[in-house]
Design goal:
The complex is a heterodimer of chains A (about 775) and B (about 260). Chain A is of the alpha+beta class and about 775 residues long. Chain A is built from 20 helices and 28 strands. Helix content of chain B is about 35%, strand content about 25%. Chain B is built from eleven helices and 14 strands. The chains are: A alpha+beta (about 775), B alpha+beta (about 260). At the A-B interface, helix 4 and helix 20 of A face helix 11 of B. Chain A: GO terms for molecular function: iron ion binding; oxidoreductase activity.
């Protein structure tokens, strides 16, 4: 490892502009003639639109245009779609209701857009939007998935009778039933996974620009995957052919999944730009973000886990109801199925697993992937169940887990996944040692003297990242492949641009991807620029989500670098009259191994472009492209231990220690990985203790529409984290990387809830474990 | 936010004059609630008359045990006043718990008590200290000033200019913060004087800040954290919202009262 190569704690190249306020986000973009948009949104959770009167609004100052969904449909703009087909167990396809970019027949959640107002200023657009009169016939609403399945529930989409989108299963139901029937002990538990709002620091924003002369559209947008946005807007929403649509996702301030999807606003602003003849910008305010950004989680599950007399798991049966909201968002169907139930084996050898998943429409904002996406739900369910089982069986939590760990690889689970590498014992041992697990009883006694209830809890998580082999996801219903692309462009002076289909919205790719190049070519990272986020600059790519940029995106860079290196070696061999097989690249030089003959990197690059003296038949230039399709998912895993003190008088939980032992395979930049873990832990702790989206069940109004009511984790809610890394390199990609972006959010919630329930001596506690809930649980327990 | 006109008043007289000229105008004294409310379009004053730059409204003065705090004094200045801390550390501690550093440098005591948010901290201190609220027109006892949730005795156009109180023998404040907003889910201010004890509760009351007679009597008899245990807090008089039930708030009132006494020493 060089000072800037793989494994170095290089400070982030991008931080100078972020920390000095020089980042360029979508809302910073301004073009001549640009106007501002405000959307007219439904104040009702469910209503029929009888009519709309824009007469008064059109007369308001500054108004340029007011457009509605009928005009949009007349212009041939399509409905929004879910891009992952799931079939119910009876073979029928999922029942997707129509999602109009601008609703004109029915609105189905508070915030559903019905019209766009374009005006000279945002304030004028907003004033005029308030003056639009929509004649609504309010309909009964339902916000909870379990309620939506009841016979008397309001019907939300005609396409989905009973609000059931699909009734899907995975695993062997009969074998699992038999295993549980014959079990020596069965642990049963109900699991509720709370609904969350992603809350990226930068709210969504889009700028649509139509160039009438070229019949060309440019879309600036807060996207994690601009190429996918272009593909979907072109192929499904009929906005424009791909060659007439440029999508740019400039600096993006966090996504956590919520910026994967195409939302109505991007489509409508592009179309409105053509209709009004002006560039149209819209930026969400924070309450609009709570109302319209895709939410995460919202599962209700029942679990049965059977054990034999030796405490080995014999079977796991899960029944889950997942709330998908009012419409099916882009990847919503995959989250509670293939990103969730395929991880239900956890770190354990479970011979029989069966999961049944019903997904349901409700009058709430669409639910889709949020940091972890399905894997936190699986981990929470399993690790709460394991903890409960250990208590019921009178075993220590570690003993029960150790008894059931998978210990040889590759390991084929009963739910599709083939784990390629791991050492779960290593992370468990490291975490227990770091947490001084054995010293806990003394600490508990000391806390009791201070009047505090101290508890300890663990969670052994596994996740599947690096999504994913294109053929595999295609066979499971994905509408796209999940490879990644890279182009390595060496300039004539030897500096390098790497064009990647991955997209950085906080992950630090400009640093880590440059470190990879520095490692391979021995050049300083300052001579390497990472280019991403613009469909006109970068070849087709699939974007960033599911902790895939290292494992998949950087693997594509490796493949492109392989080609660049091979050509550079040929050129260097020709220059030095040596055999190309004898050329090595070290410290920015190409050398003939075992001699003192060298040629600097920049000179090879220059030779490639002057082309005065290249090997016979060689094309000039030094620029290579590669596409990488992963061979398997990657499987990061680890063990988290939380230690808490509960104030018995108020129910308030204080985290006194949090240990995270993660196996992410090989690590490019430990500092950035630690930052990712810290961020993930903060969001996982937020889910466990603080965060919950709540709707009024009668009216469907969003109750948590601002930070006055939605509790985000703050610095003083969090302890100082104790991190360590174990390493079983991933065998299925060239860098041995597994991915680290989501682990913290996946592994931490059950560790916290296991610790709190240990402290207060009850098992009946749902997330978020607010002080009131914990206090009530203690009252009930007395 | 709707369009509004901003005026920076140079003196109390100037502010009152400006306010009189604009029927739909509002005083702005930090804006930590008003500006957020305006951004949500829940308030639409035609004019804002900013009081934060009036020299006469600023500053803490301590004369013996008599304290005067100008209405335009930001929370950070109250929290950081060593003179004030030497006679009444509880109010410094309370001011240091309001919001975050940004809020504490913008928000003012006058703005806070004139708004009388049912979960704000200062109303508990004013009521607990038996402070006098001075306006451009009159002097009002805190008991008469706070009249209900977001309601005060202030008349149209009347402006708080200062608060004044005599430092008590002992005082303490304990707050249980709302996990989301960090306003008081329940906060209790206790103050002990030769002639009795006052216990003021914020964040919990269905009608805003209130005094708890039972606790006052119990603590007057025996000044001890344990004295609170035998008192009753009626959940029926308390707020119910998604963050806390009346029963939970009733529990918090007692726990915070106990801790306020402990903090008071």
């Amino acid at each position: 490892m060089g000072v800037e190569g793989i494994g170095a704690r290089v400070t982030r190249k991008e931080d100078k502009r972020f920390l000095t306020g020089k980042g360029r986000y979508t809302d910073d973009m301004s073009v001549p003639g640009m106007k501002h948009a405000c959307f007219v949104r439904s104040p009702y959770a469910h209503a029929r639109i009888r009519g709309m009167d824009t007469t008064a609004a059109r007369e308001m100052p500054g108004v340029i245009g007011i457009l509605d969904g009928r005009q949009l449909q007349a212009d041939g703009i399509g409905n929004l779609i879910c891009g992952w087909m799931i079939h119910s167990k009876d073979g029928s396809p999922m029942k997707m209701g129509a999602w109009r970019p601008l609703a004109y027949e029915t609105v189905r959640y508070v915030g559903d857009a019905v019209a766009i107002v374009v005006a000279d200023t945002y304030a004028e657009a907003r004033d005029a939007a308030e003056a639009v009169t929509v004649d609504y016939e309010e309909l009964p609403a339902v916000t909870e998935a379990v309620s939506a399945l009841q016979a008397e529930a309001p019907q939300i989409h005609p396409e989905a009778p009973g609000n059931l989108i699909f009734d899907w299963q995975i695993g062997d139901p009969e074998a699992t039933d038999r295993a549980i029937a014959s079990a020596a002990h069965v642990t049963e538990i109900k699991i509720h996974n709370n609904r969350l709002s992603p809350n990226p620091m930068e709210p969504r924003s889009t700028l649509g620009i139509y160039d009438a002369a070229e019949e060309h559209y440019t879309c600036y947008t807060t996207s994690q995957n601009p190429h996918v946005a272009r593909l979907v807007m072109s192929a499904f929403y009929n906005v424009a052919p791909e060659n007439k649509l440029r999508v740019i996702a400039p600096d993006v301030g966090g996504g956590f999944g919520s910026k994967i999807y195409i939302y109505p606003e991007e489509i409508v602003c592009l179309w409105a730009s053509k209709k009004t003849g002006v560039p149209v910008k819209w930026t969400s305010d924070r309450t609009e973000a709570f109302l319209t950004d895709a939410h995460g989680r919202d599962h209700v599950s029942t679990v049965k886990m059977g054990f034999d007399a030796d405490h080995r798991i014999v079977g796991l049966k899960v029944d889950t109801i997942a709330n998908l909201g009012a419409y099916m968002s882009l990847f919503s169907s995959a989250v509670p199925t293939y990103l969730y139930a395929t991880l239900l084996s956890g770190q354990y050898a479970i011979p029989a697993i069966h999961a049944n998943v019903r997904t349901v429409y409700t009058n709430t904002v669409p639910v889709d992937a949020y940091r972890g996406a399905g894997r936190p739900e699986a981990t929470y369910l399993l690790e709460r169940t394991m903890e409960t089982a250990a208590r019921e069986l009178g075993l220590s939590p570690a003993e029960l887990r150790r008894k059931n760990f998978i210990r040889s690889f590759p390991y084929q689970t009963p739910v599709i996944m083939n784990y390629d590498a791991g050492d779960y014992e290593a992370s468990l041992s490291a975490a227990m040692q770091a947490a001084d697990w054995d010293g806990f009883p003394a600490r508990k006694a000391e806390a009791a003297e201070r009047g505090k209830k101290r508890g300890i809890g663990m969670s052994c998580y596994i996740e599947a990242c690096g999504i994913a082999p294109s053929a595999a996801v295609g066979s499971l219903g994905a509408g796209v492949g999940l490879w990644e692309s890279a182009e390595v462009r060496v300039n004539a002076v030897g500096t390098i641009e790497v064009l990647t289909g991955s997209h950085s919205h906080g992950q630090g790719h400009e640093t880590t991807f440059a470190q990879l190049v520095a490692e391979r070519l021995g050049v300083p990272i300052d001579s390497v620029n990472i280019v991403h986020g613009d469909t006109d600059k970068v070849q087709m790519g699939m974007g960033t989500y599911g902790s895939r940029s290292g494992a998949v995106g950087m693997s594509a860079v490796v493949k492109a670098l392989d080609k660049v290196e091979a050509k550079a070696k040929k050129i260097a061999a020709h220059m030095m009259e040596a055999d190309e097989n004898d050329i090595v690249i070290e410290n920015g030089e190409l050398k003939v191994a075992g001699t003192d003959k060298t040629v600097p990197w920049f000179q090879v690059a220059l030779s490639a472009y002057t082309a005065h003296n290249l090997p016979a038949g060689m094309e000039p230039g030094l620029k290579e492209t590669a596409f990488y399709d992963p061979a398997n998912f990657t499987f990061p895993a680890g063990c988290y231990i939380a230690e808490v003190e509960v104030d018995p008088e108020t129910g308030k939980t204080q985290i006194v220690q949090f240990v995270a032992a993660d196996d992410f395979g090989n690590i490019i930049n430990p500092m950035i990985v630690e930052g990712q873990v810290h961020g993930g832990l903060a969001q996982g702790i937020g889910q466990a203790l603080l965060e919950e989206v709540r709707y009024d069940p009668e009216s469907g109004q969003l109750l948590t529409a601002s930070y006055m009511d939605y509790a985000m984790p703050r610095a003083d809610d969090l302890p100082s984290f104790d991190l360590s890394h174990q390493n079983t390199p991933c065998p299925s990609n060239p860098l041995g990387i597994k991915g680290c972006g989501e682990a913290g959010a996946i592994g931490s919630p059950p560790a916290l809830i296991n610790a709190i329930t240990d402290a207060i001596g009850t098992n009946d506690l749902t997330m978020p474990a607010t002080p009131m809930k914990v206090w009530l649980a203690m009252q009930a327990n007395h | 936010m709707y369009a509004t006109s901003y005026h920076r008043a140079s003196s109390v007289e100037d502010a009152v004059k400006l306010r009189g000229e604009h029927e739909e105008g509002r005083y702005l004294s930090g804006g930590m609630t008003l500006i957020a409310t305006m951004k949500q379009r829940l308030a639409a004053p035609s004019d804002l008359i900013d009081l934060r730059h009036i020299p006469d409204l600023k500053g803490v003065s301590v004369d013996g045990r008599n304290v005067r705090i100008g209405a335009g004094t930001p929370h950070a200045d109250v929290a950081g006043s060593s003179m004030l801390r030497s006679v009444c550390p509880a109010i410094c501690a309370l001011a240091g718990m309001i919001g975050d550093p940004h809020v504490r440098h913008m928000g003012t005591i006058g703005g806070s008590i004139a708004n009388n948010d049912p979960a704000a901290d200062y109303p508990a201190a004013m009521l607990g200290l038996g402070a006098t609220i001075i306006t451009d027109r009159r002097w009002l006892a805190a008991d008469d000033f706070f009249t209900g949730m977001f309601e005060t005795a202030l008349e149209e156009g009347e402006m708080v200019t200062a608060v004044t109180f005599e430092a008590p023998e002992k005082a303490g404040y304990a707050k249980f913060a709302n996990p989301a907003s960090r306003y008081a889910l329940t906060g209790v201010f206790v103050a002990k004087r030769g002639d009795g004890v006052r216990v003021a509760v914020t964040g919990a009351g269905a009608d805003g800040v209130f005094r708890h007679a039972g606790m006052e009597a119990a603590l007057a008899e025996t000044w001890s954290p344990d004295s609170v245990a035998g008192t009753e807090v009626a959940p029926a008089d308390l707020l119910s919202d998604m963050h806390a039930s009346p029963d939970y708030r009733a529990n918090l009132v007692k726990v915070m009262a106990k801790r306020a006494v402990m903090a008071a020493g």
